[in-house]
Amino acid sequence: MKSGELKMSWARQYMPVLGEIRKRFEAEKPFKGNRIGMALHVEAKTAVLVETLAAGGAEVYITGCNPLSTQDDVAEALNDVPGVKCYAKRACSVEEYYDAIDKVLDVRPTVTIDDGMDLIHRLHTERRELLDGIIGGCEETTTGIHRLRAMAAEGKLEFPVIAVNDTPMKRFFDNVHGTGESALSSVMITTNTLIGGKWFVVAGYGYCGRGLAKMAHGLGAKVIVTEIDPRRALEAHMDGYFVMTMEEAAKIGDIFVTTTGNTSIITEKHFRVMKDGAILSNAGHFNVEIDLEWLHANKEGYEARDSIETFIVNGKKINVLAEGRLVNLATTKGMGHPIEVMDLSFALQALCSEYILKEGAGLKGDVYDVPNGIDVEVASLKLGSLGINIDALTEEQNLYMNSWDIGT
């Protein structure tokens, strides 16, 4: 087998939940006659999702959602899967990136699956003639959900979208364990530096930030959390981390990871006070959290080693990983989230795509939660694959939990 096929085969053996869903899809063909347009990180775990959808009868057209996260050998292997066409390539230009988005849309998809909302944004701005053919979509990540909710609030979202990111099975496992492990391991393997004893700065204490803080602390780092939400800041404090502003953290931090999904988190005023050798990386979706525009405009940079660009600021070296893009995927050795974690997230995507195909025509343009039944089904399938049994409510307990007239 070629390298891309080997990667897919390796991932497949650790994705039992998608494996069970695929068996049903092969028998029922729920996507027969439909075209699914996807913009996701094109790597081995994603390929297993694509295979699952194609096995369910879909024609699948996919491109990347980040110019540096595609694994070209996997993209090549996907083009050998019946019913699949992949347009993604690594290190593409902005023009090539959006050309590939347009090629996916050119097939007039009936369902979209996004990671960052680029397909949906393109449909609502440049390709509006295709909107009538869209039944609905799914969105994978926090940044995309933020953008979609903003569209919906303005009445601009013209078809229903399932917020796959905003459900317990995604947040508790993908965001916490997935981001925590994969971002940290990518920083370690890219820089070959020690975590223990370092001041490790996590910008944002959402689910991704919590996972990173926990993992870094477990390796002996002194973890600093920066936040804008007083409740999350207090939670970080009670969890045992140092909480301060980024201006304060910039002076003492050794390693920085942004997880906010917002822009301009680390900027010129922070660069100027950082230690010599500070390492900056991003685990949010887009490369806007670190002000790379200022660095490139004002400081000459050079490639210190694979996926590390070094800038000299006030005589000190500031090291930026993966061009400020997703550090767990965009470094040359970044492998993304652990396979078992993505098995759960992509199981949600597969089942939510089936749901939106069945129910989307009756839903208005808005952002919808993952149906609770789907979330529970994915958890149950995972427990079954692990051989774990859990209790169930008795008739008496169920009556008690659903009654209002039983007193003390």
UniProtKB/TrEMBL annotation:
Record CDD domains: SAHH
Cofactor binding notes: Binds 1 NAD(+) per subunit.
Ranges of residues in domain S-adenosyl-L-homocysteine hydrolase NAD binding: 175-334
Example of a GO biological process term: one-carbon metabolic process
Database matches in Gene3D superfamilies: Adenosylhomocysteinase-like, NAD(P)-binding Rossmann-like Domain
One annotated Gene Ontology cellular component of this protein: cytosol
This protein's UniProt keywords: Hydrolase, NAD, One-carbon metabolism
Cofactor: NAD(+)
Protein name: Adenosylhomocysteinase
Species the sequence originates in: Methanolacinia petrolearia (strain DSM 11571 / OCM 486 / SEBR 4847)
Biological classification of the source: Archaea, Methanobacteriati, Methanobacteriota, Stenosarchaea group, Methanomicrobia
